[in-house]
Amino acid sequence: MWQQIIALIIILFFLSRLVKQKAKKEVNASEFFVWLFFWLLAALAIIFLKQIDALLANLGFSGSGINFLLYLAVVILFYFIFRLRLRLAKQEKEITTITQALAIKEAEEE
Amino acid sequence: MKISCVIPAYNEAENIGQTIALVKPYVDEIIVVDDCSLDNTFAGAQKAGAIVLHHLINRGQGAALETGNLYALKHGADIIVHFDADNQFEAKEIPELINPIKNESYQVVFGSRFSGRPNNMPAFKKKVIMTLARQINYLFFGLKMRDPQSGFRALNREAALKIRINNDRMAHCSEILYKAHYYKFRLKEVPVSVTYHDFGQKISGGFKIIKDIIISKLSN
Questions:
Q1: Which ranges of chain B would DSSP assign to H, the alpha helix?
Q2: Cβ–Cβ of B59/A99 closer than 8 Å?
Q3: Contact (CB<8Å) B53/A90
Q4: B contacts of A78 (beta carbons < 8 Å)
Q5: In the sheet where B51-54 sits, what is the strand order?
């Protein structure tokens, strides 16, 4: 029980940070809602951990709900890293395009 | 027919002057793309009489080639030759590389380092890395070329306009090969010589190429 309370406190901390970032306009609306959804979903998963346990048992899995959440978190983290890599690749390409345009412009002006 | 030679260069102050002097008799213009070198590559290339483009940030060989291509196309190049700055290729073989484009209506010609000409490539690279590269080209792109990674090539204007190099780093060799096949250009491999001054691309570089190909395929 106390582990669940600690987990919820941590989630609340992240939620408060998110709200602060939104107030300071450091995150845009779509990003805010994605993270809000993510943390609320995490809080719900923690609150209904026993029900998830039962659900997993019904589905024939032997692991507990908390294990399932851990695996899920790892999968989600991998997905975010993958997304970041793609976004980074896109930004790298954009930097290259600017560098190329500048190089050609500079040579033509000489 | 205007022949432009694009030479990407990074920290090649020692070789660039000689490379330009050797290439000059065979082409109409030489475009050196200095990829933010830390030495005097830029000044050396300018002194040797090349048109020099300067990358403000180091972007890699593929990006430098693309910059050179864009400039050459903008200034009316009919044939673009890609040549290395470190003197590993023989400038006197440029006419053999562009002849199939000029006289046999080929559109892209690749220099092959494995077709009988002198080649002092280290044995490990020749037997292991290049074999692996051939397999990767076949696996990812379905390509069967004798030289999977040659940097000595010539493209006619039509091919250069169509083949945009998106891989900034070393994966551009595979990308150019793939796109030349994909757009169904008339291709030819001609034998070229190569003199290695150091090992060149290492096996770790090979893995980086695979990673770049995958990322590029996913992000495009």
A1: 13-23, 41-47, 61-74, 94-103, 123-124, 130-141, 157-162, 172-182, 203-219
A2: yes
A3: no
A4: none
A5: B51-54, B29-34, B3-9, B79-82, B153-156, B108-112, B187-191
- Side-chain half-sphere exposure of B42, counting CA atoms within 13 A: 12
* B113-150 per-position pLDDT tens digit: 876 766 767 777 667 777 777 777 777 777 777 787 78
State how far residue B212 is from chain A, nearest Cα, in angstroms: 9
Strand partners, B154: B81, B109
CA nearest to B36, candidates B58, B51, B59 = B58
Which residue of chain A comes nearest to B216, CA vs CA? Answer: A89
A35/B112 Cα distance (integer angstroms): 53
| ipTM tops 0.85 | no
Closest CB from A89, A95, A103 relative to B53: A103
> Cα B187–B191–B192 angle (5° rounding)?
115
| B64 class by beta-carbon count within 10 Å (0-12 exposed, 13-18 middle, 19+ buried) | buried
Cβ pair B95, B173 in contact under 8 A: no
The Cα of A90 is separated from the nearest Cα of chain B by a number of Å equal to: 7
* Phi-psi label, residue B87: left if phi above 0, alpha if psi -120 to 50, beta otherwise: left
Band of pLDDT at residue B211, cut at 50, 70 and 90: low
* Distance (Å, whole) CA B13 – CA A9: 60
pLDDT in tens, B30-57: 999 999 999 999 999 999 999 999 999 9
Question: Looking up tokens 């669940």, which residue turns up?
Answer: A4
Q: Are B134 and B94 in contact (CB under 8 A)?
A: no
What is the average pLDDT score of chain B?
A: 88
The answer to whether B59 contacts A96, with C-beta atoms less than 8 Å apart, is yes
A99 in B contact zone (CB under 8 Å): yes
User: Look-up: residue for tokens 């990673």?
Assistant: B211
> Would you call A100 and B55 a contact, using CB atoms and an 8 Å cutoff?
yes
